[in-house]
Structure formats: C-alpha cells, structure tokens
Design brief:
alpha/beta, Rossmann fold, two-stranded antiparallel ribbon, 10 helices, 12% strand
Length: 347
C-alpha cells in the first residue's frame, strides 16, 4: 500500500539535546535537508500516491521540558523527554513516507477560565494551581469570577458570573472532571508555547526535504472554555445556548482526507486521549474502516503523573484499550512501518 523506505538518522540529531531549549539553525538545516533528499532519493510530498499524516500533539516546552510548568513526567520521571527522542527518530527514519506533519499548539493568555487570574475568593486571593472548583464551591461562593476582568463580551459582571456557574456545572455534569485551575502555561508568544527545539528541528527538516508545508494547528486561546482536544472545546454553549465555541470541523475533515493518520504527543491521559476520543466519536458512526487508518504511537506519549498527588497512567491505558477495540492501531515508533497493518506495500 505504501512504498516504505526507512532512512538513517541525520548526523545533526543529538538525543542529549532533546531536554533543552535552543535555536534551530534554519539556513544550515535547510541546506542539509535538500542534500539529504537528493542523496536518499526522497521525492516531494506532492508526489505521494497515498497520503500519510503525522499529528504531533502539544510537543511544546511547557509540557516536554523538565522544570517547565506542566512537564509530563509519566511514571519514569522523564516521560516526555524519552518520548520526543523516539518521535524525532521516527520522523527522520520515515521522512520519505510522511506526507505532512501537523503539530497542535496549546496556546493561552493569562485571563482564561482555567487560570488563577480569572478567579478570586473573599480574601481577594487567586486560587493556587491545581485547585479544583466544583459546582458546590461556586454555589457557596468559595470562588467567584474576578470582578476586575473586562473585555470578555459580557454586558456586566452578573452575566459573566452566571456563565462561570454554568461552565463549572457543565463540566461536572458531563462526568469527565471538575474545573481544574492550571498554572499559567503555553503562554502565547512565550518560550513555553514553542515546540521543543529538537522536535521543531525535525519538523523543519521534513518540511524542506519533502517540500511539505507544516500544518500548525492552534488550540486553547478561547478565554471561556478549556480546549484539551484539538477537535472540540470542552463547552460549546453558554446560558440559553449562546455559542461560546465551535467544533473544529475544518480540521476534522482535513484529518479524514488522509489515507493514514499517525498520532503522537502529550499527554496520553489528557490532550492526546481526548483528541482521539473526539476523532473516534466522529468516525465510528460512519465507518469502522475509518478507525483502522489511525495509528497511535504508544511509545511517543506519556500520562500525567505527579508522585504522591495524581497518577493517570491506568486511565490512559484504559483509553488506549478502547481505541484499539474500536479498530485503531496501537503501534511503536521503533517498529518498521512496513510491519504495521495496512501500511506494508506488500499487502
């Protein structure tokens, strides 16, 4: 089905640098990428007979570099770093078969419903990161919207306060989770929002070598809802069904236009899992066959684990079990792609 051709890892890749932030030397890498394509007979992506997409979910410094705001450690303590070493190697080895890379970019500002500045208590204090706000907390007035906030398209404070109560209740009633106040992270224009340097370098190298435009997809900048999944925000409607946000139908259609979609990134228990859940909800009613063109790189993603506080490993593993039972393929990046179901050119 695909003309699989594994390539060597380019000499510039240094796995010891994956846990660090540095500047990609674009001009040098672009020259090397063109030479690499010529040396190894790599054709432009536009000539691919079958289109394969690699979706890289939130491989940003804020989640993937130790000591940044929401480092995804996994049970190993270095999960996201180890994942990104394998992800970069996967991109370089399979550069000739990956038609397009689509990185999703979690993108926030300070005044959003899940950040401390949005809320305040009777002592005029903001909630600490990882505070959970339940409907009961809201009804008791433990937390309320910071009255100093403006510019959110509500006519007055009473309206935004009513919406906040509605939002907290919507999350709770869905049974997924209560509102969590996250530390400021993936801040628009900040270093935390940027792709991990080694991943950015691999994505850039692929783009030049294959003359393929990288399809960056921004999510999470709506101040009135969380946006874990790149396909859909957590809450779509406000009081009286006023539109707060919309599903990303354009992006969903783009994904489904590919012959195969490979998914990696962070975190296995949150943004990756919920993106795949949304994808599965869209494709299964139409055709079980559509689920079979999705491949999950289980060794390029880790769950959220904070020792002694929370461990989402079991929930993440259960989600992957459901995805596999629905027809999606759970594979490893270190396995040759010509051994993956539906990928082998001999099938």
């Amino acid at each position: 089905m695909y003309e699989t051709k594994e390539l060597p890892i380019p000499p510039h890749f240094d796995p010891e640098q994956v846990d660090r932030v540095w500047r990609v030397p674009y001009r040098e890498r672009a020259m090397e990428a063109r030479q690499w394509a010529g040396t190894h007979g790599v054709r432009p992506a536009s000539e691919d007979r079958r289109k394969l997409c690699l979706m890289v979910i939130d491989c940003q410094n804020t989640f993937c570099i130790p000591d940044f705001e929401l480092f995804v450690a996994g049970r190993s303590g270095s999960g996201a770093v180890e994942d990104n070493v394998r992800l970069c190697e996967f991109i370089y080895r399979n550069l000739a078969i990956i038609t397009q890379i689509i990185p999703t970019m979690d993108t926030h500002t300070a005044i959003q419903i899940f950040h401390p500045a949005f809320w305040i208590n009777e002592e005029k204090q903001h909630p600490e990161p990882m505070t959970v706000i339940t409907p009961e907390d809201f009804d008791k007035g433990v937390w309320k919207v910071n009255p100093a906030i403006g510019g959110l398209e509500f006519q007055d404070y009473a309206q935004i306060q009513a919406y906040a109560g509605h939002y907290v209740k919507q999350l709770h009633d869905r049974g997924k989770y209560d509102l969590t106040i996250w530390p400021y992270h993936a801040m628009l224009g900040g270093i935390g929002q940027a792709l991990v340097s080694s991943v950015e370098e691999a994505v850039f190298f692929h783009s030049v070598a294959r003359s393929s435009r990288t399809g960056y997809e921004i999510k999470g900048d709506n101040p009135l809802t969380e946006h874990y999944s790149v396909i859909s925000p957590e809450v779509l409607a406000g009081i009286d069904d006023t539109v707060i946000a919309e599903r990303n139908s354009r992006f969903l259609e783009k994904l489904l236009s590919f012959d195969a979609v490979v998914i990696a990134g962070q975190a296995k228990s949150h943004c990756l899992a919920w993106t795949v859940e949304d994808l599965l909800a869209e494709i299964v009613p139409g055709s079980h066959k559509l689920a079979e063109k999705v491949y999950l790189l289980e060794d390029c993603t880790s769950p959220v684990v904070v020792p002694g506080i929370v461990d989402f490993t079991d929930q993440a593993d259960e989600a992957f079990r459901r995805f596999r039972e629905a027809g999606m393929h759970v594979v490893r990046s270190t396995e040759p792609m010509d051994g993956w179901p539906g990928i082998s050119s001999g099938r």
